[in-house]
Design goal:
Helices cover 18% and strands 35% of the residues. It is of the alpha+beta class.
Length: 613
Amino acid sequence: MSGADAGGGIVQIGDLLDGRYRLDEPIGRGGMGEVWRGYDVELRRAVAVKVLLDLDADVELLSRFKREAFIGAKLQHPGITVVHDIGRDNNRLFIVMELLEGRDLAAVLARSPKGLPVPEAVEFALQAAEALAAAHAQQVVHRDLKPANLFVLANGRLKICDFGIARTAQATEGLTVTGRPFGTPAYMAPEQWRGKDVDARCDMYALGCVLYALLTGSPPFPATEQAWALMRRHLDETPAHLRSVRPEVPARLDTLVASLLAKDPRARPDAPTAVQRLRAATDPEQRPPLRWPSRRTILAAGFGTLAAAGTAIAAALWPGDGNPPSFTLTGHTAAVNSLAFSPDGKTLASDGYDGTVRLWDVAARTSSASLDGARTVAFSPDGKVLASGSDDYVLLWNGATWASDGNLASNAGSVISLAFSPDSKTLASANGNGSIQLWNLATRVDAASLDSHQIGVESVAFDPDGKTLASGGSDYTIRLWDVATRGSIATLTGHSDLVTSVAFSPDGKILASGSFDNTIRLWDVATRGSIAHLTANSRLVTSVAFSPDGKILASGGGDNTIRLWDVVRQTGTSKLTGHTDVVTSVAFSPDGKTLASGSNDKSVRLWKISSTG
């Protein structure tokens, strides 16, 4: 649908604003404008473009639109949407922002009407509080914090969006338009309802409402009530304590939310204090113990022989409590998203959100080349092809010369994950629209398209014989596919959030899956039953990988660590620390002696670790 079809009458698909920003498709509409998926033809990157629809907008609306751009450009924080540019084209005002791929917390809550798992809700609130602390430090008050304005990226990073009604402490403009207070009724602080001057403490009240909603499924007072009823309740009523609605909520979290919802702004904690208290709420000592399956459970699932032989994941972990030797590779200017070793182990490819694939000489630990790419990377098993994914196509590179070897146009949304079949003849690409494409590498033809998941496909993996393809999706499920017939074999359920990563053990008997629900599940491929449910990294699990001999399972997570797992022996885990932000990807070298990790901290680390023992 074009902007004209949507009622704006001013923009349409293909328009090139200011000779630079191409409008590709409308993706949202708000009170001030229409948001488009666009493309910056100069920097060759996907962007979001917000266009002011009303050409005859009044002075207040124009001021708010420009203020959103000014504030967005002023605030530089990973938890706040980045504003790249503002411009005018034929009297059309527009703002250019980073394009966010994921979903907002309103959509997350819609799928969890009784609330999210406590650790997940706390994690989202913590990230929001950290971003608010940065905004408040710059004297910026958001004034409309709510789940719909909190966007969760595929890597688990939360971003605050829509500073359209934000204001700075130095601003002199009023707080109302046509006598109405600014904000969303279910999340507005009492002082906003009274029309009084507000400061950063109104954001803290809204944060309390958001956290209440994340934990119970709805804000303190029902959003379905009429505005006048909500005003009265926010002004005069004390919400039910969290633990009366959800008893398993920790007492100190209940106390924090109650303080955030204080009627008197002076009684509310500021953002830095809320950050400290939320971090305390995620203290490892307060988390439940690892949920290891009993040996009887493993035997009952048909893994007695496997456990005795130790051929799957009888781990030999790094001894002791300290980290193994590691080396840090730097060069990316944005988060590292994906990693892949060449079959000979001499080259490591890392794909970053800076739009580049870097090739590293593993022995020399130096960058040997830089190629185009934006989301994911994979080597063919024969080493002849390196593939990298981007917004709507797959780039292919000659594995010997690194010269371009063409591209595959997906036309199915952003390419999120790639996997080669063991014979290197087929490439599977997982796409943001929920489909998987299987490409014939000899003919470069899309041999099949699997409409696999209701929404985005996060990860794909072939089993060792190439007969089965596994996919993990944003719909919380794992699908198994018969590669020959293109038919669905099974749907595996059990995760309570999007499945970020899937990996087959080298013998093909076990499938591991990691999820944003903070867990790893191990599945019996033959029976398709769950054989283990591991509480993994203390925050989101972003990636899982088996060592080549199948004795170690590595996972990367939102707590900035890598975990190494011994499942069969049911011992503890080894934890590798050093990254300063989310670990987005893990990969073992072909000889199993090196583990590579990529992170949102823009670095790649090589860990010297042996999987023998």
